[in-house]
Amino acid sequence: MDLLTGLLLALYMSFALGTFFLVCVSDTSNAGILGKISLFVEEDIPGYISIVVRTIFGKQCHAYCRDSYDYIVHERNPLLQLLYLFILNGAYISWLLYGQKHLSTMYLVSDIHAYIAFIFIMLCHFSFYLACKTSPGVITNESLNKFNYQPYDDILFEKNNICKSCNIEKPARSKHCSLCNHCVPLFDHHCVWLNQCVGELNYKYFLLFLLTHVVFFAYASYVLTLMLVSEIYDPKIELMKRTFSIAGTNETVRGDKLHVILNYLLSKYTGIVVLFLLVFSMFLAIAGFFLYHLYLIAIGQTSNETYKWAAVKRTYKKMLHNYKTYQASGNRNEAGPSNAIKYEGDDDNHVGCVPSEGPSNSVDTFTPPSDPGEFPPNIYNKGFYNNLCSVIFPHSQRKVASPVKNRKNTKRKQT
Q: What's the half-sphere exposure (Cβ side, CA atoms, 13 Å) at 56?
């Protein structure tokens, strides 16, 4: 492989991983290093580019670029769906060009992997189609009764909460998405890769989409690793016993050195090495995302609810700290434990996994802090098995038996 092809593959891999970071990993609300990197990538870099564009190309070009940026980032559009297809099919085409042709010559690899890879790529496309085409559920006046079955916990969700945009009562665990412009039952997040929300009716297909890609990228990583290992241990080549001369010098090195083996593989199979780095990185990222969603199922929460619970926990810790500080100062508040811990963020102002700000604790007059009591439980957590069943078999799609009239089984009194 020539230098230009290697650079193009490296740019492709960098572009794919950078896009995945922006969409799935970046979190500007994080207080650690991840938040600083996210802020730099999402705010500082676009700001610098905006200044350069306005300075060099003028206000009109700057306005056009700004409108294009708003369309890509703040409006519902299919661009990232097309980007997904570009990344997936680009990886497969790279495999056809630089990997598959070596199957017949490899020591430990069989030609059957050419067919298995094709089947996997078709399964990835099929799972992507299902996840994109299946609606998450839309709450309307007609469908309200079907989706309004969850109890209200009076912490994250309260009764008689009317959506400001739809003017419809919001069932528990639902949320209005400003990109889709409707309320979604059992809202998890708005997925830009699918160009729609992930909710009650399509959550299982979203998980299938992730699982398919985890298995595919794990399989691809295994095959590519096997191909590289085959080159090392092939008895016809005997790479470990060979000696190599260093360019520009008279020195020679043995092939049993790790850096020599890596240099040899990178020079002879650049495409396979770069492709391995891409698919293995994608495997780690998507596997982590999939395991995170399994964790959410295990604790009975959605992505949206994790941010709400985080706000509730911050409020609870602050209330408990204030109460203990007040008690330690020699003051006493004889009032019993308070049950007023609630999430007070504005649900309609956020989309997807954007965290909402916690409730305000400002008061006009001093009120002695009361004991917040035990932290409230999550009533929606029914255990991993039941939670998973509710994902695979959504409650709103289950067939409910029609009510059967009670038959009188009482015996007639004997006279």
A: 7
Contact (Cβ atoms closer than 8 angstroms) between residue 136 and residue 182: no
Q: What are 195's two structure tokens? A: 């160009």
Q: Please give the mean pLDDT across all residues of the chain.
A: 80
pLDDT, tens digit (0-9, with 9 covering 90-100), for 34-67: 667 777 777 788 788 888 888 888 888 888 888 8
Q: Locate tokens 């097309």: which residue?
A: 82
The confidence band for 344, taking pLDDT boundaries of 50, 70 and 90, is low
Q: How confident is the model at residue 354 (pLDDT cuts 50, 70, 90)?
A: very low
- What confidence score (pLDDT) does residue 340 get? 59
Q: What is the pLDDT of residues 187-205, one digit of tens each?
A: 999 998 999 999 999 999 9
* DSSP SS3 for 197: strand
- Please tell me which residue in 132, 177, 180, 191 is annotated as part of the active site: 191
Q: What letters, b where the CB count within 10 A reaches 16 and e where it falls short, cover 269-296?
A: bbbbbbbbbbbbbbbebbbeebeebeeb
At position 342, the amino acid (one-letter code) is K
Please give the DSSP secondary-structure letter assigned to residue 169: B
Burial class (CB in 10 A: 0-12, 13-18, 19+), 145: exposed
Place of tokens 């160009």: 195
Q: Would you say the C-alpha torsion 316, 322, 328, 334 has a positive or negative sign?
A: negative
Claim: this prediction has a pTM higher than 0.70 = yes
End-to-end CA distance of the chain: 103
Token match 């870099």: residue? 45
Distance CA 67, CA 166 (A): 27
Sign of the CA dihedral running 283, 286, 288, 291:
negative
d(CA 51, CA 53): 6
| Segments in 203-257 forming alpha helices (H) | 203-233
How far apart, in whole angstroms, are the C-alpha atoms of residue 148 and residue 185?
Answer: 8
Is 191 known to be catalytic? yes
HSE (side-chain half, CA atoms, 13 Å) at 370: 12
Q: Give the range among 34-48, 145-159, 203-217, 316-330 with minimum mean pLDDT.
A: 34-48
Contact assessment for residue 329 and residue 286, using Cβ atoms and an 8 Å cutoff: no
**Contacts with 240 (C-beta within 8 Å, 6 or more apart), sequence order:** 232, 233, 255, 256
Residue (of 322, 325, 302) closest to 372 by Cα position: 322
The C-alpha atoms of residue 193 and residue 220 are separated, in whole angstroms, by 22
